[in-house]
Amino acid sequence: MSDEKPVADLPKVELHLHHEGAAPPAFVRQLAHEKKVDISKVFNAQGGYAFRDFVHFLSVYEAATSVLKTPEDYARLTTAVLEESAANGVIYTESFISPDFCGGGDVTAWREYLAAIQEAAQAAETAHGIILRGIVTCVRHFGPDKAKASALCAAETAGDWIVGFGMGGDEGQGHQGDFAYSYDMAREAGLRLTTHAGEFGGPDSVREAIRDLNVERIGHGVRSIEDAALVQELVDRQITLEVCPGSNVVLGLYPNIESHPIERLRKAGVNVTVSTDDPPFFGTTMRREYEMLHKAFGYDAERFVEFNITAANAAFCDETTRERVLKQLETA
Ligand code: ADE
Ligand code: ZN
Predict the structure, then answer these.
(1) What are the C-alpha distances in Å from 147 to residues 175, 179, 180?
(2) Ligand 1 centre and the CA of 257: distance in Å?
(3) Best label site of 94, 228, 306, 314, fewest CB within 10 Å?
(4) What integer pLDDT is reported at residue 13 of this predicted model?
(5) What number of other Cβ atoms are within 10 A of residue 252's Cβ?
(6) Which residues contact 155 (CB under 8 A, 6 or more apart)?
């Protein structure tokens, strides 16, 4: 028997995690009970989240999020999420946090939510060593006007903790370029940029993201594989993909992990990293992602260390934090 450590035990860097999407179902059920909100339709018979397809997933996500009503709720959520991430060996994570859900886009309310999240994150760092940084995120299907309010929240709180601006939501609605004003505002405030593209949108959505929003990372981006010239462009521009294999399989982009393009993208020279997206929704964890990839593609510890160094180098944090993370990866 090999005495090598299982790959799932490695320390991990996660770049693509939705704050509410990481909420354990039991946590959401408890909050719903406390607040007397009926969200029974959100759950299946086994108590997990229930959805049919991507658009339905987005509406179930928003229904689950509706129980998070105060900064204190977000502090509790942050504690629950980071305990779970730390238990999965994550040492550094960036999470998507939406002012739409935290104060409805009002800057004063947003600051209160953010302060509560940061305080809980600091406590988790002290207790478990895990580092969290925030990416303010607008929601594509809420439209460009709401995105501007989110970008203003982002710009007002940009710094060592809020380090990026991003966009999630339904890629079927509008175009990346509709959000250029918000992205410009975030860039001018010193924030680093990412957006969801090439998940439900094809290669054109990735091209639009690069051309119209000038992002340096792409959330998913996996459908770039359908266009060889685009793959080369990702390599030439050193754009990092936040790849979430389990999410892509559960949402039906690929029938199984073996047919996921992560290995073809990696072989082509694209900077790929591994994340979970919305782990309890997709029945995954960072440990499970590593186990699945190990089984499907034979990835060994060396390969995962490579992914993690790529992720640390693409992280939006300051250089001192990056050095701390890289040192932990090296010494593990
Ligand atoms: N919001 C939460 N998860 C998402 C995903 N996988 N794609 C787009 N928006 C999201
Ligand atoms: Zn996502």
Answers:
(1) 13, 7, 10
(2) 19
(3) 228
(4) 99
(5) 11
(6) 185, 186, 188, 189, 191
